[in-house]
Write a sequence for this structure.
């Protein structure tokens, strides 16, 4: 689910998440398994703290899975 702005997500400290890199997820920004049959794989990450985070929506961030403002360029 690629978009031109970040996804706001509430994360739980210590929980593992899988960030979609194929842009086909129906549960974006998190992986739904839609990448199967492609050469893309999700990015596994663990939340460092509780609270809201802004995850990349444009698939161009240099700091994936987090937004770095690349969608503005």
């Amino acid at each position: 689910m690629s978009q031109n702005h970040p996804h706001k997500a509430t994360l739980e400290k210590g929980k593992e998440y899988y960030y979609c890199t194929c842009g086909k997820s129906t549960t974006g920004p998190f992986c739904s398994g839609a990448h199967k049959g492609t050469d893309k794989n999700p990015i596994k990450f663990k939340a460092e703290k509780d609270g809201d985070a802004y995850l990349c929506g444009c698939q161009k961030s240099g700091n994936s899975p987090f937004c770095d403002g690349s969608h503005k360029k």
Notes: The mean pLDDT is 91. The first strand starts at residue 7 and ends at 11. The two ends are 19 Å apart (CA to CA). The chain has no helices and four strands.
